[in-house]
Amino acid sequence: MAAPVMRRCRVWLGSGHRSVGNVAELRGSEGPVAASALCRSAKEVTEKQKRNVPWAAVVGLEIHAQICSNSKLFSSSQVQFAAAPNSLVSFFDASLPGTLPVLNRRCVEAAVMTGLALNCTINKKSLFDRKHYFYADLPAGYQITQQRLPIAVNGNLSYILRMGKNQNEIVTRSVRIKQVQLEQDSGKSLHDDLRSQTLVDLNRAEGQLRVDANVSVHHPGEHLGVRTEVKNINSARFLAKAIDYEIQRQIEELENGGTILNETRAFDFKLGRTIAMRDKEGKQDYRFMPEPNLPPLILRDSKSSPAHTSDRQVVNIDWLRERLPDLPSAKRAKLVECYGIQPQHSFTLLNEDGLVEFFEAVVNATRMAPKKVVGWIVKDILGYLKQYNLEVKESPVSPLLLAELLNLLESGTISSSAAKQVLEVMWKGEGKTPSLIVKEEKLELFRDQNELECICQTVMGAHQKEVAEIKKGNKKILNKLIGQVQRTTRGCSDPVLVKQILEKLLS
Description:
Shape: elongated
Number of domains: 3
Distance between the termini: 89 Å
Number of helices: 15
Largest sheet: 10 strands, mixed
Mean pLDDT: 84
Number of strands: 17
Oligomer: single chain
Helix content: 25-40%
Low-confidence stretches: 1-7, 14-43
Strand content: 15-25%
């Protein structure tokens, strides 16, 4: 039997605190008041004073991440995105009586690598449990998960924020990871409002990431507040918006004398707000029990693995640790160290798929220093890509063509402004090389200093007012004359040489 694919790796992130300022005002009253009014006023003042205390928010994330595997967690069903509904369903996926789960080794390895990447302790023995609940997309009436003893626990994730006016300030933060666990995915409910029907797709492969955010607010020093859970958020951008909205909603509710319900909410991305779904006051009894059809999951490392045991029979933690790819923080550090670029540039290079490889290919083919190359990559190339909504791999300017252009600039054949003109022509995708464009457009730098001196004299003659200002001591005006010379020569003059000639003529 063949069927769909999608195994899930569930990650719980520990709580993080966030201070939230309060803008409530305290206004005084005027005139005489009765005793009862005084009591009421004193009470109101006390309440308002409490409101002036800043709030702290606590956020916990439950992240459901799809594992990249060819088959499902407990069956041989194929994984194929956007396959026809129920076209990839095995007997086990359909929960037919007598079918048994078979654990996918690839999914176990991916979960271990996730735990290692998050600095978790990998449990050499972990257990599977049944989580019972009844819903149409779960035909067995239970979900196989890891509740009591998951595959990895007690991790942490450090990350870097770019702050400040120009995002040049680098700040490191850390979040706790409670656990990483393997979990069977449920089906997908498809609601047909026209027919008032709900259909179920058991392919279990249509979402790569879903996040449940648990949010509460409290005054520092006091007990934690009642939390709400915002379910099934499918992007980092919507996650941030949902959390920000929910924090502010809870603060306003409490400051207006209301209470926060322990409830499940959904995020409406069109309205930009969370909406109540169902309350959680009566806690659901999932009746967790050990999964009888799966034995304990035993992992090994180099010390505990028997010498006679083949790699096909065990999952070796140390073997996976050695094959763990560089994490983003390590990649950024290598870029800064190897090429001497600014940390903020390393962020940009890594944030765009394929941009690091593009940058390194240019560096390897040009004489220009990497510090200068990265400027052309993150400002000019990336600017064009965003302007035309293209991915790096779709760029009409290849790394080799850009390298040739930068070599012309580095050798002094063309000026920086001329190089930008050439890049603009190259971006049209006509297949012309930088050298050919320079020749056709006559963009080579002026070599005749006498001719350039004549152009400078002409510009000065046409801008007598600016010349007078410069002679009075306003040296900043000189840049305007340099710009005029550049426009006259269509960017084919060396600004440094132009400045020297102008200063000589002005003296």
